[in-house]
Here is the input.
Amino acid sequence: MSLLTRQKSPSGAAEPAAPAGAARRMRRWTPYAFLAPYLTLFAVFMVLPIGFGFWTSLHEWDINLPAKPFVGPENYTDLFDPASVDGGRFWTAMRATAIFTLFSVPLLIVLPLLVALLMNGRFRGRNLYRAVYFAPYVLGVAVVGFLWRFLLDGNIGLVNHYLGLDVQWTTDEPPVWIALVGVTVWWTLGLNAVIFLAGLQDIPRELHEAAMVDGASAWRRFLAVTLPGLRPVTVFVVNATILASANMFGQSYLITAGAPADRTKTAIYLIAETGLRHFDMGTASAMSFILAAFLMAASALVFGAFRDRSRR
Amino acid sequence: MTRDTRGLRRALLHLVLAVVAALYLSPLVYMVSTSFKTREGAGSTDPQWIPDPFTTDAYREILGSADSPILTWFVNSLIAATGHAALVLVTAAPAAYALARLRFRGRNTIFTVVVATLFVPPVVLLIPTFLIVNELAWVDSLPAVIVPAAAGAFGVFFLRQFFLTLPGELEEAAELDGCNRWQIFTSVALPLARPALVTLFLLSFLTNWNDFLWPIYVLLSPESLTLPAGLGNFQGANNIRYDLLMAGAVIASLPVIALYLVAQRWVIEGISRSGLKG
Here is the structure.
């Protein structure tokens, strides 16, 4: 901020009589002055952490201990040894992240697409429905987590009551996954639906009309016009949803607290706990880089998959 | 004939959408309803949609409790979310303007590097950001939840898209009138960008207000917590008081629900548009 105000005053003051050279120099520096405040933040809280995180992962790093010995790749090799304590924990957490991602992502693509298709006509109340389906997303995970912790309570929860079941949704192994995935679908379905809806509305009407003139059935039009038209949006939604699901934290933390026996403790949950509760920051950083490598590979796969199809 | 079937289909569509919408909102209705129940009522096995007896005890207890200063958390959250959103605007707007409208050496490189970080999984930032925040002595204070996230590339990216679409004539006219770049930016570009700025402010505010993982680890003492992080402490208790928890959840939801009711269209359109272009 101070840089910007400093920029403003001299140019304002020197305006009429400023020699051409000074004015030109001012102009040359102006863009950088515009960028400076953001780039300062960017350097300190984006570029620096990336490098610093990797540096940390090569050390035995406890924030409270003065000695932070360099251990090279040891944190990584330790994690890749399933017999080690950290390795065992880490791959259990990676498994939890993988299960959650595999089950939540398809539902979070197909259901929002259906909702978007239903809402893609012009009819009364469309914006109202859109607002309703989107509403849970504006609530934070804290509210959503507590609310569903209550509704899924094994003894007094509404879910068991109305389904006539006696299931421990927050502590028993297959049901916890249904609970976590279900809550997440309820929470974020509207987000993907409005993105799909915007994508549907960007498909030129003429394409549909032309297909109709050619006598194409509704299903045929869906396959030949709608789906290809949605490709860019779909790549984005699939990618963003995979990343969001793989970063799932609050639902586990609040609804299951990792139960049973840490089997729903996700990778990011373990990383936060290892690094920021137990202050084993070297190990936690190494974990985060391994998780990031998996996430970037997943993104690459998504881009690759969609590119191949368009070529054919 | 076709008109009849079309009418029928439309009615069916409305029925499906309305039923699903009602089901969709019912958990929120039950949250509000439970917050007005007694301790016994909230723990009852019989679902009660209209509290009987109706009481504001849960709110009174939660607002009066010394070890969970929920009003302080509320104010902290308000300061953090407002401060964060303001910081995002103040830093991202000039940067986005420069990247969109000014020509200078290194522009493409800077833009590419900034946008590339959109693809960096945020998990790798978690531990080192904590270490940096610790060096700055910000742990357990609000700057920790206001500043670091403003380094994200989203705001710059989002506003740049908007500045790119502005017509150049107005800026040229201002330049002929003798305005310098800063004056053109503040008096021509920013007013035109108001919709994008409002949207970015709202999205940043909501994201910050709802943030959970970071504040529960970086804020420690009861009086420095944000609302979601403070509510997180309730979970620790063995005997969960759902009446208190739901009252806390309602209080945490009020500002975002209010914002959403007022600015629903801006929020939704901002998110769906940024999605398309991301």
Q: What stands out?
A: Chain A has two domains: 2-57, 86-311. The two ends of chain A are 52 Å apart (CA to CA). Chain A touches chain B through 100 residues (CB under 8 Å). Residues 20-57 of chain A form the longest helix (38 residues).
